[in-house]
Each structure stands twice: as structure tokens, then as C-alpha cells.
Amino acid sequence: MQDFVMVDEPVRQHVLDALAQADLTADPDFRRRFEAHFPDLCRLFRSLYETRQDWLDQLTALVVESARSWQERPADLKALDARREADGGWFLSNTMLGGVCYVDRYADNLDGLRKHIPYFKELGLTYLHLMPLFLAPEPHSDGGYAVSSYRQVNPKLGTMEQLRDLSAEFRGHGISLVVDFIFNHTSDEHEWARRAAAGDPKYSGYYWIYPDRTMPDAFEQNVREIFPENHPGSFIRMEDSRWVWATFHTYQWDLNYSNPDVFRAMAGEMLFLANQGVDILRMDAVAFIWKQLGTPCENLPEAHILLQAFNAVCRLAAPSLLFKSEAIVHPDEVALYIDPAECQLSYNPLQMALIWESLATRDVSLLAQALERRHNIPDGTSWVNYVRSHDDIGWTFADEDAAELGINGFDHRRFLNSFYVNRFPGSFARGVPFQDNPKTGDCRISGTTASLCGMEVDPAEAVERILLAHSVAFSTGGIPLLYLGDEVGQLNDYGYAKEAGHDADSRWVHRPHYPEEQYARRHDASTPEGTVYAGLKRMIEVRGAAPELAGTTLLDFDTHNRGVLAYQRPASAADGGETRILVLANFSDEPQTLPAETFSGFSGAAVDLLSEAALQLGEGVTLLPRQYAWLRVTPRH
């Protein structure tokens, strides 16, 4: 330890001297956070870049740039930083509720979105994720994930000034703004890429560019193809015959984070967005951000160090900014990105997929297993739980988990694909295949929640499935997330292919335009829209009033019934620690009775918070088909 202090004190002083020369040492808040977080930033940055002779100059420039960003940070955001530093677990509240939408499809533009704020308040939103809205060239935008400028909004949606004003208005209504930060790659029309294509040596170093196939061939011995139908391998040929790394589409060029110039540039973009009022960044494609010869270039240790280093920068200059990971990989790999010093939030793709699996099979075994083994995550972090998102549904369960239950993963995925695209006899689902391969049976699933639950087949049963699925997402622990429109049962948009640029991507089937007629019926209890909306509103209200449902801690509970899912949410010590919420969810199509012995660990009296009905557990509990209950119970001592 003494050697570490002796080596790093000159580094610390070097950086402080540079801050003083730039007249950036006067702010006591920045200096306090510098003393708290610089050691971590220095350690992380050095571990990535110490082989470079200029690593200290690069680190110094990074801290100076961060100090300038803090100096420019608006006063109201600094006040928010102070509040959230004092309440680091603000996002673990049981009153958190998320929504996600495309600005143009839900509200035409940013000004149009402002008109929906009264509805957002009615629903109870505290978190709104706007799908990619930065400048991206058409037709090569990948739905906004090929960014040509992180500092300009797509002009069809508005301006950066309008986004900043909207974020302030959201903040005034208690709504946190979430946006995507596409940081694995840029568009080939980004200024950096244009300069690289023109041969500028500085910007050529921002990407993985090689003069011939020698290094691409070496990398591709270990790297898998992500979009083989778009281009073979991971590299594409540039107009000047050089080769550039493009993991995804040909027009999305991977950034070279082994170059500290790239780290500094992207940290600058990140802090710029934070100063516009963005609260949470969804970190896109986190698994791919670090490349190393001889490896698959996915989920490498340096990817985690990069995220931690970006976090340390934010703790200096935008301390309330949070990261949300997006990693649709093996469940064990998803969990590795969830850490207070890395990604404080994470999508929960396994739970999402297994909710749909349970609806199809009427068997909760895989979902119960996942909740028991893979739900609990570190203190100070949270899941974002969803029934569906803007993306397709892929079956991300681990084959080894399925094998323990006697399930062949490959065969089971083929069954689920067949079921959800209505190729299986008796299926209720009306999904659409995405990237379908009829020869292998492999595909992923597109469709709105209502259409996948069978709204076109049997509306009454579909409503029950919609609410059953959301009862899990709303009660397992974390931030529940609604794809806006699903709360009123919006159906597939089967005319999606008529829109320019959408015909080759079936995911647009579940990204319909604002369903005005459905929203108009949301208060009519005689309609499916009204029943879905009322059911979700009841969950939101009950969840917000039940302290047991804050945070993410979950205890498993075995019903000894493959049709009925159950788990417990315990009260924290601060809330008395005496009660629990016992969630029961019947995924079968038949009534299920759980005998009194099932509940022998609890006192006899219970209350279903959703219906306010009193129960005597000593009499057992019967659940109707697709019925769910949130029981407040007290363990026996």
C-alpha cells in the first residue's frame, strides 16, 4: 500500500497543478469529489493505458475536461446531484415506474411529447426512456443506433435545446430522462469517421482500421459473425481499400478504446448529455466494447474496467448520472455488468423471456429456477423489469439450467418460436418471426404484448395474460418498465412494411404509432383497454404503498405446483422487517389449489393487497386460471 501511495502522489499532484493552471480548483464540491474518486479513476485509466508513454498527459487532460464540464453544469442539475448523493438509493423506490417510447411514433416530436406529460403523471411515470433520438443518417440509421452526432437531435424530432427544455420540465414533474448512449460504434457518417475515411491519421486511430487483411483475418479466427446476412466477418472494406471493424451493420464502425483519445472523446459526449439533463444512459452493446487479438472480443475484463472508468469520470463531473446495461448474453455474463461502480441498472432479459416461456408452457419451472438463482444482485443496483421492449424476444435462458429440468434447450427454443408465430396447434399468440430460418427453426419473436397474448384470438383471456405477465414484472423487485401503448392493449401494426425502410425489419410490427383510440377507451371498464389499464393502475398504486416491494431482494418459495409461481418480498429492517409480500401467480389454464401445508411457515391471516380480500392460509388458497395475488403475510417465529 505504501508503494502505491508513493507512486501515485506525484501523479495526483501533477493533475492538481494542471487544474490550478486552468483555474479549475476553486470549486469545493469538485475538489471533494476529486479527492474521493480520482484514486479509482487513476487506477482504472492507468490499467488500460499505462503502456502508452502519454498516459499521464491523457489522464490529466481527461480530469481538466471533466472539471470544465462541472463548471458548465447548470445549477439545478448540481442541486439534483447533491440530493441524489445524499440518497444514493433513490432509484430503488417502490414508486419508480418506467416507460419507453419512440418520440416520433408516440408524439411526432419533442414538443408533442410535452403534451403527454399530464398523462404520464396520471399513469405514475417517474422514468421515461426515449428511444434513439440523435442525428443518424437515413436510410442507414439502424433505427437511430448509427449515430452521426451525439450533440444533435434528429431534426425531425426537434433540437438539443428542446431536449434540454423537455428534460427540465420532466424533472419538475419527477420524471427522470433516459436515453441510449451508443458507445461501441458510430455511424460511418460521423465527423470522426469521415475524417478517418479521408485518411486523417488522428481519426483513423479512433477506429480499428488496417491497410490489408492480415489483422482482420487474425481477429476473425476467434470473433463470431453478428449479422452474417449483412456482411461476412467483422470487417468491411473501405473505399480506399483499407479494412475497418464493423461488428453490426456495414455503416456502424467500432470505436477503438485501446486509444485513450477515444475514451476522452466519448467521456466528453457523455458529460455533454448529462449537462442537458439526461439522468440515465442506456449503455448499448456493452459486451463488445473492448477488442483483444486471440479472444472472441466479447465480455472481456477490460470492458468492465472501461465502464468503471467512465463511472469514475461521472462521479467527478455529473455525480447523479446512472448507467443501465444492455447485454443480451448468457445470464451469467449479464450479471457481471451489474455493480454500483459499473452499471447501477440492468435490463432483465432472462426474466422477460421466461415470463413468455411460462405463458406458452403453462409451467413455471424455468422461471422459478431463474428467480431463485439469478435474481438477487448487489446492493445499490436494480433490475429494469419488462414484459417486452422495442426489440425482439430471444430465448436467453442457459441450456445447462434447462437441462437440470429435463429440457433440451435447442428443441425448446424451436417450440417457443413455433408457438409465438402461430405455427403450433392451439397457440393463442400472433407474433411475427424476426430473422427467421425455416431450415433450422431458429428465429426471434416480434409482436406487441397484446398480440402475443392472444388479443386477436380471445380478448378476455388475453387481458388475463397481459396482467399476469405484468404482475411478475411489477413485483419481483426493480423498476417496472412499460412499452407505452401496451398499458392499453395496443395490437400489432401489420402495415409496418409499407413505411419506408421498415419492410426488412419485422420489429416495426410491435412499434405502432400512438394508439389514440385505445387510449380514449382506457377508462371504460367494459373494454379490453379499460380492463388492462385499470389492472395495471391497481398494481402501480398497491406497489407504491407497499414498502416490501422496494429494492430488489427476493426470497424463493416453492409451491410444489408447476403451474403456480411464487416468491417472497421481505420488508427491510428500516420498515420493521416483520411482514412479507407473498406473490402467487397461476400460469395454468385450470384452477389451482395450494393446500394449507404450503403456507405452514406463515401465520394464518393474510390479505391480498390487490383485491383487499382477507384470507385464512390454514384453509389453503385457490387461484383461478391466470389469477395472481399479492399476499401480505407474517412469518411464524
From TrEMBL:
Ranges of residues in domain Glycosyl hydrolase family 13 catalytic: 102-543
Keywords: Glycosyltransferase, Transferase
One of the Pfam families matching this protein, by short name: Alpha-amylase
Record EC number: 2.4.1.4
Xref: InterPro entries: Amylosucrase, GH, GH13_cat_dom, Glyco_hydro_b, O16G_dom_2
Keyword Cell division tagged: no
SUPFAM superfamilies: (Trans)glycosidases, Glycosyl hydrolase domain
UniProt record, GO biological process: carbohydrate metabolic process
An annotated Gene Ontology molecular function: amylosucrase activity
CDD domains membership: AmyAc_Amylosucrase (cd11324)
Segments traversing the membrane: none
Protein name, as recorded: Amylosucrase
